[in-house]
Structure formats: C-alpha cells, structure tokens
TrEMBL record:
GO terms for molecular function: oxidoreductase activity, acting on the CH-OH group of donors, NAD or NADP as acceptor. The keyword NADP applies. It comes from the Eukaryota. Keywords: NADP, Oxidoreductase. This is NAD-dependent epimerase/dehydratase domain-containing protein. Residues 11-247 form the NAD-dependent epimerase/dehydratase domain.
C-alpha cells in the first residue's frame, strides 16, 4: 500500500510487542504509516495492546518472525521501504547462557535483518542500539564528554561479564560496517535507560528497574544513570528516519544517581517503600545528545516521565500490594 503521491509508507518494526517498539508502532500508525510488526508468537495475548492501537485494524499486520530465522524476517520486510530494527533480548537478571540468550540474537539477529533489508531493496534502516555500545569503557577520562565517536570496550565488557553491553556493541559495530560495505542506508540511535508508561501487559527490564525502586530493597548500587522517556526515544527514531539521517545518535535526557532518582520519586510518591541502603560506586560519566538535539529533537521533563510511568504501573496492577 502507498500513501497519496505514490510514496511507499510501508515500514517494518522488529519485536513489535516490546516496550519501545509498541510506542514506535503507535507513533507510526498515528502518522499513517502502514506497519508490518514482527512478533514471535502472534496468537499470544501479550500482543493484544498492539491490535487495540488506533488505526491498527487498517494499517498494522503482525508477522510471525524470529530474528534468528532469516526467511521469517525477510517475509515481514519484503515490500517495506523502511525498517526499524528494535528486537533484541534485554535481560533483567543474570543469564546462564549469554551466547544463546543474548549475543546470538543481538548480533546474528541484526545481520539477518540487514541482509533481508538489502535483498528487499529497503531504502532506509533505523537500528536501535544503546549507550551500552557507547560508554562502557574504563579508560574514558572523567572530564571528557562522551559523544558518538566513543565505543564501549568489548574486552572490558567480556571481562566484567557484561554480556548485554558486549552484544549491543558488537551488533552495532557489525551493523555500521555492513551498511558501509553494502551501501545500505542506516542510522543508529543509542538511547540510555528508557522509562515511561508501558503499553504492553508484560514488564520489561528497564521498567522493572523503576518498579524495584518503588517496591524497595535492602541495598542497591548508587550508580549514575542517564534516563530518557520512551515517547522521546520513538520520536527520535522517526525523526532520524524521516530526515534520512545516517551514522550514530546518542539519545539521552537527564542523569540521576539511583539515590537521586529514588528521592525524586519519593517527593512525588512518598508512600512506596524505596531502597534502604545504597552502595557507593564511582561511575561518573558525562554524555551528550547535542547531535540529536541539533535535528530539533526535544525531550520531556523527568517529572512527567516518572508520573506517567508510575500511573501506568498502577493501572497495570503492578504496584498494588507494595503500597503502605
Ligand atoms: N529499555 C531500555 O532501557 C533500552 C535502552 C537502550 C536501548 N534499548 C534497546 O531498545 C530495544 C527494545 O528494548 P525494550 O526495552 O523495548 O525491550 P523489550 O520490551 O524486552 O523488547 C524486546 C523485544 O525483542 C524481541 N526479541 C527478543 N529476541 C528476539 C528474537 N530472537 N526474535 C524476535 N524478536 C526477539 C522480543 O520479542 P517477543 O515479544 O517475541 O519476546 C521483544 O519484543 C532493544 O534493542 C534494546 O537493546 C533499550
């Protein structure tokens, strides 16, 4: 299907049922794109929220595809002019088999998607990377502002068994090399910790982090975390797509320590439990989203993000038993 004027507005979103991808599908549908969403188990109730989105009945088709299965990915991408590759495992706990559970789907899954894009003559690809591929590097001096020229240190990620960061770094590096080698037009967006309201009925790793703060625990590392709202992430993805951008873009809003974030939440919602102790860690890093902002990208306030997140968790019944 094409929009008026003959421009192909059919795009594919991989892993459409996830936290970020669900908001992306919602935004694309609102902009009259025709969306092919890949999911692994199309009959499952966990994708019902997608079918209820405005314009979904006319413009959204769900395709059964595993990114490790090239043919299934190609079937979903064929006929699309754009692809947003979002699917990737984001573990919320320690994984027992990192190669199978994280690295292979992130790296081989991305290669499959890009090869399918090339074969299907897709015009542009937006790849969702992460600051996990940018700033996990012990050798960056503290007075340096980390921008898109920085890469995470893969050996350090391996040594510290930070498999998700290793996988995102390897996947993005290979994706950008693939694009350079083949001429496939690709832009890579690197968000920080993504928070904000959930559309899906299952919880994802980054939302679980905020839920953990609200539920409280004995102790938590007082890490410095860069945050960005899910709605601002998807607006960055579509902005980069519609502007025909290439290269990398860091997508972050504000930084808080874990304690600072809990205190901010407590000032709005005093009746949740919150962590009791914090373990101090020295991980100060300064990052910049200036490049993305220069495209006109803007982000919400942290207050809006936190309130909308908590209200959505309440609505989903995720916090009931923890309130005083
Ligand atoms: N959330 C964050 O804080 C954050 C920060 C930076 C970057 N990111 C990136 O943003 C993207 C989305 O993250 P998210 O937070 O939205 O995570 P999420 O809710 O857990 O979604 C991940 C999606 O990946 C899909 N997936 C995993 N393995 C797959 C496979 N083998 N084949 C097909 N689909 C597969 C899952 O599909 P099923 O529904 O079939 O399970 C799910 O829809 C990821 O690329 C992540 O690295 C996230």
């Amino acid at each position: 299907m094409t929009s008026s004027g003959g421009v192909n507005r059919k795009v594919c979103v991989t892993g459409a049922g996830g936290f970020v991808a669900s908001w992306l599908v919602k935004l694309l549908l609102s902009k009259d794109y025709v969306v092919h969403g890949t999911v692994r188990d199309p009959g499952s109730q966990k994708y019902e929220h997608l079918l209820k989105l405005e314009k979904a009945s006319e413009n959204l088709t769900l395709f059964k595809a595993d990114i490790l299965d090239y043919e299934s990915v190609y079937s979903a991408i064929d006929g699309c002019s754009g692809v947003f590759h979002v699917a990737c495992p984001v573990p919320s706990t320690v994984v027992s088999n990192p190669e199978v559970e994280v690295i292979e789907p992130a790296v081989k899954g991305t290669t499959n998607v890009l090869e399918a894009c090339l074969k299907a003559n897709v015009e542009r690809v937006v790849f969702v990377s992460s600051i996990a591929a940018v700033c996990i590097n012990p050798n960056v001096p503290k007075d340096k502002v980390i921008d898109e020229s920085f890469w995470s240190d893969k050996d350090y990620c391996k040594e510290t068994k930070n498999w998700y960061c290793f996988a995102k770094t390897e996947a993005e590096e290979q994706a950008l090399n693939f694009a350079n080698r083949t001429g496939l037009r690709m832009v890579s967006i690197c968000p920080s910790l993504v928070l904000g309201p959930i559309l899906q009925s299952t919880t994802n790793a980054s939302s679980l982090f905020l839920i953990k703060l609200l539920k409280g625990c004995d102790s938590l590392e007082n890490k410095r975390r860069w945050i960005v709202d899910v709605r601002d992430v998807v607006s960055a993805l579509v902005l980069a797509y519609e502007n025909h951008e290439e290269g990398r873009y860091i997508c972050i809003s504000q930084a808080f320590t874990t304690r600072g974030l809990a205190e901010k939440l407590k000032s709005i919602y005093p009746n949740y439990k919150y962590p009791i102790n914090y373990i101090e860690v020295d991980d100060y890093k300064m990052l910049s989203s200036e490049k993305l902002q220069s495209l006109g990208w803007k982000c919400r306030t942290i207050e809006e993000t936190l309130v909308d997140s908590v209200e959505s968790y309440k609505e989903a019944g995720l916090l009931q038993s923890e309130q005083f």
